[in-house]
Automatic annotation (TrEMBL), chains A, B:
GO molecular function annotations of the record: DNA-binding transcription factor activity; transcription cis-regulatory region binding
Alphabetical UniProt keywords: DNA-binding, Transcription, Transcription regulation
Residue ranges of domain HTH lacI-type in the record: 23-77
Keyword flag DNA-binding: yes
Key word Transcription regulation present: yes
Protein name as catalogued: LacI family transcriptional regulator
Pfam families for this protein: LacI, Peripla_BP_3
Organism: Nitrospirillum amazonense
DNA sequence: ATGAAAGCGCTAACAA
DNA sequence: TTGTTAGCGCTTTCAT
């Protein structure tokens, strides 16, 4: 590890940097026999620079693999070319949760951000400290914020938006809300899923999810609406709160079963929760979907591969992620941005006990 | 959304910013009746500043919620206080994969980075373009790099390390390698798992994973070693390459079955792959573990909740993530850093058909 | 078509 | 203990 660099160093004649002392715009200028300003212009594609000069500069830039210092550039131009993604739920109870849904969404956001030529800062700021989010832009680290899940931060988010901070959040669209959200139609998605369960002849349907989260509250409304449409009175005993982690869901389901509750279906507020619930049911010798039908939410990749394959409400993370980013850039550019509610799709597979002839298996369609 | 800010604005007397025009250090200095330098000193906890002055400055800073501009600070001090995490596999074939293992590791890295008071830049640079990684630090965007999975970028990573760039990669420890890695003992982990399968009486064991990835190659070595120890000759027909995505694994497994291969166990190179494989087996009416025993790798949270619960080789993402970060900071500080190989643990659950009396179910221990 | 000079917001000598 | 003066590396008037 000692001589290799030296050897390489001897190769290039200019040898800009061996380890430190990166080449700067001034250096390129000197070598090209022009001024800093000209180099700057050449690099930013200004038309007021001689083609020949530009070529000479380009060559130098290449051969020395010079890159403009974005930090200095940003300081001068007043922006950062990076946006932050904040995932409150990433640190539920100081333990990273690992819901695949987040990574899927994050992946799409990363793509979209990169397409705009921006960098992405991932922040672990919790929902409690929205001023932490504000700092991110106040200290000139990012140009805007994307929050995934409003969680309990609603008020804080309102404050940020009121301050004119570029901000888009993935989550529920609340009444009287002043910040921009992108999210699926939680109410309709849940209603549709529960209606489907009812159509299968299920009547005692468990609601598995924590209603303190705005999106979950909307899903609960959909649940209630579907029941109402069928003339069913919601039973409080079947309203089971649980966090998004597998273990929490398992525990919740187990104690429901232990409590002797009677039910024939479960509407779980995420696929991860659904999977844990199924596990708990099977452990007790209950068959899914025969004894208990289960529907999840999200349609994470693994949903199709579980056994039984999971019926679930698909959230379109691809267009969601892109929209999140587009709306943020609109705000940064000073253009108006309006909240968007994405339609959901009920993906019927085996776990809900629907027309088994049509069981959707991955790859089979 | 129009009058709220105005109302709030009237509340605070100083009213630093309504929307733009963030307050700067100069402003605080003027208000405090001191110079910029004094403010700078006060804020950085310098001992050469009068306590009373410091208090006055602090008060102003609070009331105007002033934050120093990290971009300017970094420009001056020569660092960025942010490090980049590059996940090559995040964009296999232009499609984001969503292996929970990555999120778990990423979460721990995020924690550790935050503990150091640094920011985390998430980059989608692919394994092919390691010069893209170099740019990240050359353009002054980050102080160092963490690559998750060396994938096919080995040579590029070597070059970066040779240039003296702070870099740590999660992956396999290759011979003659000049960059620092953190990773589990892939060879031993795989060997142990396969040996366990053999101990259950299985002899025809499928290897499910792509050997072009260094870590997978090591796992294959372990697989071969375990077979050899039992006097079993590896059958090339049972060496099934597959990418990390669920769909790819499903396809691979299906065509193996369709090809009429005979086998009684599967060693899958990730839990996601294992789950898809089980799905494929069950679709064909094969029982797991009775007909085919399956072992996975990673021990993602969901492994315990699958049906059957997955026997798997646990990789300790918590200490892995922390180590990755610690070693990177060591390099940044100019301290020496040595590669670390983490021990793995075989977590025996139902899918491998081991002593079923002891089936490990989540929460039951 | 190019150069000189003035900053972007901050820190770090060097003085006082 | 505090202020003054230079920059960090770049962009951008304003001249030429």
């Amino acid at each position: 590890m000692a001589d290799k660099p030296a050897a390489t160093a001897a190769t290039q004649e200019g040898q800009a940097r061996t380890k430190m002392g990166a080449v700067k715009m001034d250096d390129i200028a000197r070598m090209a026999g022009v001024s800093k300003s000209t180099v700057s212009r050449a690099l930013s594609g200004s038309p007021l620079v001689n083609e020949e000069t530009r070529a000479r500069i380009q060559a130098l830039v290449e051969s020395h693999s010079y890159r403009v210092d974005t930090r200095a550039q940003g300081l001068r131009k007043g922006h950062t070319h990076t946006i932050a993604v904040v995932i409150p739920l990433l640190h539920e109870h100081d333990q990273p949760i690992s819901d695949p849904f987040f990574l899927e969404l994050l992946g799409h956001i990363a793509d979209a951000v990169a397409d705009h030529g921006y960098d992405l800062l991932l922040s672990k700021i919790g929902p409690g400290r929205t001023n932490g989010m504000a700092d991110l832009v106040d200290t000139g680290r990012v140009d805007g914020l994307i929050a995934i899940g409003q969680s309990t931060a609603h008020l804080g988010l309102e404050r940020l938006a009121a301050r004119g901070m570029p901000l888009v959040v993935w989550g529920a669209q609340l009444p009287e809300q002043h910040y921009v959200t992108v999210g699926s139609d939680n109410r309709a998605g849940a209603e549709r899923a529960v209606a489907h369960l009812i159509a299968q002849g299920r009547r005692r349907i468990v609601f598995l999810g924590q209603r303190t989260v705005p999106e979950i509250r909307l899903r609960h409304e959909g649940y209630v609406a579907a029941l109402a449409a069928a003339g069913i009175e919601p039973d409080p005993a079947l309203d089971v709160p649980t966090r998004f982690a597998s273990a929490a869901a398992l525990t919740a389901m187990r104690s429901l079963i232990a409590g002797g509750a009677s039910f024939d279906a479960v509407f779980a507020c995420s696929d991860v929760i659904a999977i844990s619930a199924i596990r708990a049911l099977q452990d007790q010798g209950l068959k899914v979907p025969q004894d208990v039908a289960v529907v999840g939410y999200d349609d994470i990749q693994m949903a199709a591969f579980y056994n039984p394959a999971l019926t679930t409400v698909r959230q379109d993370t691809a267009t969601g992620g892109r929209l999140l980013v587009d709306l943020l850039f609109a705000q940064i550019a000073g253009r108006p941005a309006r909240s968007v509610m994405l339609p959901t799709e009920l993906v019927v597979r085996a776990s809900c006990g629907a027309a088994l002839s049509g069981t959707t298996t991955p790859g089979s369609r």
